[in-house]
Structure formats: C-alpha cells, structure tokens
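Step 1: inspect the first sequence and its tokens.
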Amino acid sequence: MDIRETVSRLMEDSEGLLRLKPAWVSRVFMPPGKRLGLPDDAYDVGERGYITERWLGSVTEAKNPIETPNEGLSLIYAPGGEEITLRDAVEAAPELIMGADYAKRRKGLGRLAKILDNDGRLPFLAHNAEAGEASYYFPPLAPMGPHPETFFGLHPFIVRERRKDIIARCLDDWERTDRFLALSRAYASVPDDGFHLSSGILHAPGSALTIGLQEDSDSRSIFQGQLGDRLLDKSVLTGDVPPEELEENGMMAFVDRLDWEANGDPYFYENHHTPPVPLDGGKTASSEEWWIFYNTTRYSGTKLIVRPGCAVNCVDRGAYNILAWSGKGTFGGLHIKGRSPGEDEIMVTSGRAMSGVQVTNTGDNDLIIFKFFGPDINDDAPILKRYA
C-alpha cells in the first residue's frame, strides 16, 4: 500500500478531513473510572492493567511495561479495511496534512491529547525536560470520581530551606512513598477549569475525568510507589535515568531533575491556573469559543459551543484534531456525535483548517467540540500574568 497515495485520496474524498478511530491505552497504576464509553468488561486487559486513557489524534506510541504494537496511535478510517496510523500518514505526507511551510519547520504534529479516566488519584509524578509541558482540563458534564482534587508542587518551605534531602529520603523508602503527598498541596478539580504545568513539576492528578494536552511524549518519572494496597515497581521511577547517573547520584538524580523553584512557588495557583478565556470575537448568538489550553507556545486548544439549530464557519491557522464532547451535528459535512467513540474524532488538515469548516448543530442541546493544536500555530493564545 502506498500510504501517501491513500492519504491523498482520502483527503480528496473528504475535502481535507480524516475521520479517526479511538486509541485506547492501558495503565497499571489505577483501576478505571469506566467513563470512556466502553462496555464494562472491556476495561480489564489482564496483565497489562486497565484501559484508563484514550488518546486523541495521536502520533505517539504509549510506553508501558508490556509493549503492545501501535498502542496509543490513532488509526485513520480507510475503505477496504486498510489500517493507516496517523503517525504513518504524517510521515508519508507531512505537507498535505500540516501544510508545506509548517512541515519545513516542524517534524510531526508535536502534541499529544488524551482523556484520563481513573477511579482514584494517580501517583505523584513529574514530566522531565524531554516530555516537556502539560495541561489538564476538567470537562463539564462528567462524573468527578471519589478524589476530585490534584496535588501540585511542594510546600514552599521545602524549597526555601533547600531541603532536597526530604525528597531523597522519601524515594529511598519506596514502600512508604504514599506519605509523599504530605509534602504537597491539593487543589479542587472544578468542571470547566484547568491548569498548565511546565516540565519538572510534581503533581498527582485526581479522579476527575480529565482532558490533557501536552508535548509529544509519554515520558515521565513516578515518585510515589505506594498507592493504597498496591506497590508499583521502582522501574516507574528509574526507567528514564541512565544507570551510571543513578549509581553516581542515587535518589538525588531524580530530585535534581525537578524544577525546584516552580515546585515551591507560593503563587502556584495564580501562575498555573488556566480557566477558560473567550477568544476575541469568538462569541455570537449562535456559537462561542474559549481558550482552554494556553499559557505556552508548545500547543494550544479551544472549546467550541454551537447552539441547537445553529451553524458556524471555523477558520483556523493550521492543522488540528477535534473531539466532539456532547451533542450531535455535522463537521465539514461529516456526522459527529459526542460520547460516541468512532463518531467523535476528526483530523483537520492545514489547508482545510485555513479555508474553513462549517460546524452545524443538528440536535436539541449544545454541541461542544474540543480543538487541539500543535506548537506555534496560535500565537495569540493567552499568557498568564506572572505573580512573584
């Protein structure tokens, strides 16, 4: 199969839109919240753990202890049962999907969007410099789970007093690292609200159904081994650190990778809290659009709301993918329906994004769509005022 030729034909047939299949990802950390739309018995995948994540418009392969071919990669719907990953399509036809100018400057889409669906709180973790920045948004109309709060950072005194030894001792005592959270602060997960994190910030995401957007990587270090009655293998901490560095520096190898100042920021909430911000000119009688992923040039994202019986023409600066969250309608002529895997994801190629996509609400309730953009596409996305 000639992937470039097939992608070109699919784009011609749908005028630059590619419908995507859902990409399910398993994790061993936590049982599922079962809010992803799968049958109840489909979440348990044996020794691989549970399906607790769905990746959206993904060109990223999941890093798990038990490797599963193409896990995390989005597939494009193609006639004749052909299977084409979005990653292969982007590699074979980058200028067709991302635009010629953008493809010269960037290799790949550069972002990873996902839905997190855990029945409890994830372990305390940090994205390293390779993984980069990450943002979390708590969508409306979703159950919040038993622990709808997220721990972020460290108590300021730990940073002010340079008490790195406290962190190192916690990591040495791996079987008791559940006490790690006592060194942090919890923030309530509020529907239609979110946070942006730079790399190296410790956080323990809560049980609220969460939509995440981050740089294109599945790399992280987990600092908390004890989760209730479960003990994670210490490789979840050490896996991304060279053995020689670990042998030379011990647990300080992980402590020194943290953004020490950002973790102890006394204005952490003010400097990382990202509530929705309206787009300039984005509100009309028929629709409204809000920034929900911003405060960075590495990626961006918006929430589009179209009222019942109304339509809006969306013109954007570059390629993006969408998730229909609730309601039903058409997107550039393709049927979409929220909470219906297989009918809710579309990749919008650069040319189509810039020429415009008509979005029509054919239902009785608001049609809510999330858009996910890669780096350097929306240079007008808001930047938070810095408190110091």
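Step 2: inspect the second sequence and its tokens, then contrast the two.
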Amino acid sequence: MKIVLNRKYNLSVGSHTLRRLMAANNLQSAIRRKRRKSIRQIGLEKLTADNILKRDFFAPLPGRKYVTDITYIPIRNSMVYFSVILDLFNGEIVSHKISRSADAALSTDVVSNLALKRDLEGAVLHSDQGVHYTNKAYQSLLKEKGIIASMSRKGNCWDNAMVENFFSHYKCECIRLCKKSLYSFENVVEVTEEYLNFYNKERYQSRLKNMSPIDYRLQNFKN
C-alpha cells in the first residue's frame, strides 16, 4: 500500500500513520492465508533416526543386525531398481526386490518379506537417510515389526559400507559381465536372481572361514 501511494499518487506516508488511517476508515488489507501442509506433504517429511550401528559391522548371531540399501541398473531407455537387506552376521542377502519403479514399496516390501521368514523384534536395521527410509510408511512398518531403526550420518556412505560393498561385487561380477545382454527388465531379474543364488550359496569368503554365507550360517547355527 505504501508503495502504491508513493508511486501512483506521489504521497509519502509512514507505516503507523497508514495503519491509523485505514483503521479509521474501516479498511483491511488483503492477507494471504498461510498454506497448510497437505497429507502428501506431511507424508514426505523426513523422519530420521540415530546412527545406532556406528560402523560396528560385527554381529555374533544371525538376525540381530541388518543393513539395507537400493541401487539402480540402467537398461535401454529405462532403469531397474534393486533393493536388498543384508544380515551382518554372515553377509547373506536375506530379502530383496527388483522393480521397474523407485516407489516406496522398494524399501517396505523387503522388510515385509523378511518378516515372513524371521522374527525381527529387537533387530537393528541400518540404512542411509534417503527418502525411501525417512518416509512415514517405512518408519511405521519398522515400529510395527519391532525393528530398531538406525541411519547413516548424512552424506556418509562409509556408515553403510557392508551393503555398499555387496553392490560393488554385484555390479562388477554380474552387471558388467552381462551388460551387453541387459536389454529389458526381465534380463536384469534373471541375471540378478542367478547372482544372488551364487552369492549366498557358492561365493566363498575368507572372512567367513572360506565358506559361503549360507554355509557359514548353517555351520554355526543349525536352526
């Protein structure tokens, strides 16, 4: 209003004087209403967790410490998204999902699938602070299953080094070798499922006393 009076009518009026004049003449400025957050916006708010894992990647028992992450595989004019949960006891991939879409189900479905096979009450599940892990649906699912959420510090990939290491092997030993034949989503699914079978059952690791992840688990825990 002050600017209009000055530029249009060449009048210079102070703020206090202008308010008094408007009040005396029953005038009210149009005020924009404060926008309320929609349900969708509220759902996108970041719900972070403390870094409980703190790079302690040793787990004395199966099913007590897990790490999770998502990677992507480029194919012709598209992307394929690959989500995993890894058990820190033996490095076994205990749940995974391959999808055409980077939707919220990428992070929630792997947890739900694992819950069908294992009791997750009191287990720690560590992730980064990506949108797939800081959304309300994911955090609510963890609470429902009794899982303790842990998150890397922002922008610190080393806090989730074990799953990053798995993806590095996967891309080197699987995707790069098959790159010329990866034309479709179905191609990626096929080679990834084959690799996971190999990785869990046949990829011997020195840190596991030269056993595969599943052999190591069965050797130490018969159940």
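Step 3: confirm your contrast with the notes below.
The chain has a mean pLDDT of 88. The first strand starts at residue 65 and ends at 75.
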